[in-house]
Specification:
This protein has 240 residues and is α/β, with parallel strands linked by helices. It contains eight helices and eight strands; from the N terminus they run E-E-E-H-E-H-H-E-H-E-H-E-H-H-E-H. It is 36% helix and 22% strand. The longest helix has 22 residues.
Amino acid sequence: MNIPFTAATGEAGAPKSALKTWVSYPERKDNAPVVIVIHEIFGLTDWVRGVADQLAAEGFIAVAPDLLSGKGPDGGATDSFEGDKVRAAIGALDKDEMVIRLDAARAYATALPAATKKCAVIGFCWGGTTVWTYATKQPALDAGIVYYGTAPDDKDALAKITAPILGCYGEDDQRVTSTVEKTETLTKEAGRSFDAKIYDGAGHGFLRQQTGRDGANEKAARASWAETLAFLRAKLEGKG
């Protein structure tokens, strides 16, 4: 699916651009809430599409935008980059431009005839950090789920968040998990909702790398996914 949006000022190409997006629908008789899936630093991969498909299997309309749309060779997206060049391209993305693109995905998805107006966002690693960024910019967001991503080290920025945030972290991912305690303190001081889950023995990227760390990653993946679904159902459907 290509979602049209108005490009950020100074972006190459025509004023109207297209956001390449993977869309997965659930099978249900009533309208479904929306979950935006923000990819890792590897871009829109088959694994991310699989996460979207799994969310759809659980009853949500899942949309996974390729935030590198139009940034690749000849205006391509993730699949137009060679090797590790995709990581550098994602690292160069402008935060305000990402918000424009995520807003376009949100507006498209919540306007679907099969959708409710409720919308959450979930992201992994770089995408998890982007969840925090987006939550500070989009007050209409209903929930955010961060997998091993770092928050802004700024109480004023965190105070702008209106959505409740669930964070899922590996105990042995010290680079990221060492920031959680301060994030808890700052969000509490700002009067915001942040529930952090730290899983014993799990490393970075445990939802993708479930075979790692002598079973700890798989255990963390199972537990965090159950937490994720419960959180989404509570915040988007009032269940639980």
